[in-house]
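Field: sequence (string)
Field: structure_tokens (string)

Example rows 1 and 2, in order.
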Amino acid sequence: MKRKNIKAPVKHEKETSSKRKIVVTIILLGVAFSGAFIVYFIMQIALNTKTPMVVVVSGSMEPNLHRGDLLFLRGKDADNIKNGTIEGKEGDIIVFNARGLWVNAPSDPIVHRVIDKMYDNEWLFLTKGDANPSEDAAWVPETRILGVVVGKIPYIGWVKIVLTDSGLLIPLLVIVSVLLVISLVWDIAKKEDDEEEKNSEKKIYDEANIKREIDIDFTKDN
């Protein structure tokens, strides 16, 4: 009676494949999460500022800038920042950190126009919102300036404003991240289950064929 050699399934290959999928998933997640930071980092270098984008959160610069506008900033040497006047409104629009400059200064960066400048060991700028009745309460040192406005996308920043004001920004990011991880893990697990089911069906089919061949060989030998 002839017997055919039956090759046992290689469990090690299946484990290696699963580990490879997990590694690929981790890499994809890393790329997804780091992609935004990489783009932001490139913008920092290209625009020469640590803060290349801000969202307008007040109406103090209307009608030129509206609440919710996404602004693009470029770093500019203080001596090259254009001066202007209240009437002409020809000065550069700058974004600066006002925390501590005057009483009740907002914590968010301020987007206002330069209406005067002077040099006193460093450049100082007097600013005013186009829609405000008076200038800001203090001169802005050049070290407080984040950048000069060079472009905008209207109203797209409302998404950030709504999520921040409602306190949903961080929870939403966490929920989306968890759902993304669950989705990827589920896809991998489902594919492995499908593969195991196919392998199981194939194994049953192969064993049936082998048994039939053995029976045929046994009949021939007798």
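Row 2 begins here:
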Amino acid sequence: MKKTLAALTFLLCYFLVLPAIAAAQEFEEDLHYFVVFPEQPGGEGDQVQVLEFFLYSCPHCYTLEPFIDGWLERKPDNVTFDRVPAMFNRPDVVMYAKTYYALKLIGQEDRLLGPIFDVLQNQRRNLSTQAEMERFLEEQGVDLEAYRKAMKSFAVQTQIRRAAVLAERFDVRGVPAIVVDGKYRTGGLEGGLMMKVTDYLIERVKKEKDTASE
């Protein structure tokens, strides 16, 4: 009985202390994260902007998704999140980026993010051209006329240019990459660690904003 009580007491203390340990964890610049120079605009006021640069055909982006989903369920209300498709100079990458924004324009990007990842990463299906992508999207019940119209729209072209500019400003050379409030970039880490570093950088930005407002 005494051993059981001791074990329960230990576990209780462990779980009470664990959040404090995690909050106090430090990460190293140029190892776990990088400073963006020059600093770019982030969230306004007390808002903290988080951007994830990704690519549908990237296996590391696919494995990060469950960690992103878990993080989104607990992220603070003053933290905004947005995905930015990679804009490397390859026709298939540009097509994937345009497809993401076209699907977003017609309200289908969230529903199809998982299926596109799955068909590329698990089924190894080729979707590297618009024609192949259209065949898949039609199978998923997407209105192809609306998709084609969106692909040619001014709104999608504007978003594509913005994605390219952001990738250059933040020096994004590989994906997945996460940029926190235009100040810090992390990437190339295991999913769980990457989200811990993201949380650390969010807290760092919050402290910097609080100090600046004093």
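free_text_note (row 2): The chain has one domain: 28-213.
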